[in-house]
Input
Amino acid sequence: MLKVTRQTDPDLAKLVDLELERQEHNIEMIASESTAPLAVMELTGSVFTNKTLEGYPGARFQAGSHIADQVETMAVERAKELYGAEHCNIQSYSGSTANYSVFASVLKPGDRVLSMRLDQGGHLTHGSPANWVSKIYEFDFYAMDPETELIDYDALEKKAEEFKPKLIIAGASSYSRLIDYERIAETAKKVGAYFMVDMAHIAGLVAAGVIPSPIPYADFVTSSTTKTFCSARSGMVFCKAEHAKLLDKGTFPGALGSIQLHTMAAKAWSFKYAATPEFKAIMEQVVKNAQCLAEELTKHGFRIVSGGTDNHLLVADLRNKGITGKAFQNALDSIGITVNKNMVPFDPEKPSVTSGVRIGLTAVTQRGLKEGEIREIAEIMNEVANAPADEANLAACKAKAQALIARFPLYPAGAFDEN
Ligand code: DSN
Output
C-alpha cells in the first residue's frame, strides 16, 4: 500500500506505520470513530481523486464527466434506497459541510435557529459561539431535563414558540438515547420552521434498521459517513422531494465547489455494504455492546448519564469515582484504551477538564468484540479509575488491554502487503 511513499518519503511512511500499529494495539473507543473497510481504503485511493467536476450528473461545468456521472448517480440511488429517502445530495465532504449546505439552502443571514446545547450533546456546527455559523445566524438552544437527562420536549416546544426559529435542529454528538423525531417535527410545523436532523453519529444504526430513522419526519437529514456508517471521511444530505431543488442549489454552488469523486465512490460501495446481513449484525452487536458496557460500568460504581444507552455510545459521569474526564482519558490512553473527555449535562467543570468521558463501541465491535470482552474492558476501566496514578496498576491494566485486543486483528492478515 505504501510502496512508493516508502521509497520517496520514508519519514512519512513511518508515520503511517506507527499509526497502523497504534490502532492495531489500542482499544479504540472514540464514539465518532470506526474502521474503514478495505474497499473504502481502495476507493479513496483510486484514480477518481484526479477528477475535477462541478455541477450535477448531466449538467457539469467540466468535460470528461460520463464515468463520474455514473458514480454519482449510483451513490445517490443506492443511498435513497438504503434509507428510503425521496432525495439525496451526496456531494458533501463531511458532516459539517452537510450542515452548512442545508443552512445555505434555507437560511438568510440573521435567521433564527434552535438546536441542542453543545455542552449537553449538540455539535459545533449547530451554533456554537466558536463556529462561524453563530456570526451569521441567530442561535438559541434547548437542553436536557436535569432529572432524566433526556431532551425536555415540552421546554423545546415552549422555546420554539417564543424564539420563532426558521430551522430546528435535532441530532447530537454525545446523546445516548433515541430522539422523538415525530414530536420535534410537530413542534417545527407548529412554529413554521424547517426541521433538520443531523444523524452523523447514528447513520449506520439507522441504515441497518437497528434504531428508528429520522427520514420520515425531517425536512432535511444530514450526516457524516465515518462514524457508525463506517465509510469514507465524507458527508451526505437527504431531503423531501419538495426541497430537492433548494438543497441541490444550496449545496452547489451555494456552499461547496468541486465534488470529491473518490469519497463518493467509497460511499457508493458502503451504501451497498450497509444493506447486507453482515453489516446489520455488526450494528446490532454495537448496541448490545454499548448496553453491556453501560451495565457493567454501573455495577462498578460509575454513573451513566440518563441511566444507559439506546445507541452506540454512552457518557460516564465520573464524579462519584473522584476523577475528572481529562484525568481518566489520559490514564486510559496511557494503557491503550482511547476515549474522549466529555461534558455531562450541567457539568460544573470546564470543557477542557469535564466530569465525564464519552465511550463508543463501533470500532471494537467491527473487530469482533462481544459482551465477554466488553465485561473485561469494564473491569480494566474500573481498575484504572480506582488508582489512576499507580504505575504498577497502570502497567498491569495495559498488559490486560493489550492481551485482549491482540485476539482481534484490526485488518485481516496480509491486508497491507506490499509485494
Ligand atoms: N463531533 C466530533 C465527534 O463527535 O467526535 C467529530 O465529528
User: Anything to note?
Assistant: Residues 32, 123, 173 surround D-serine (CB under 6 Å). The longest strand covers residues 112-116.
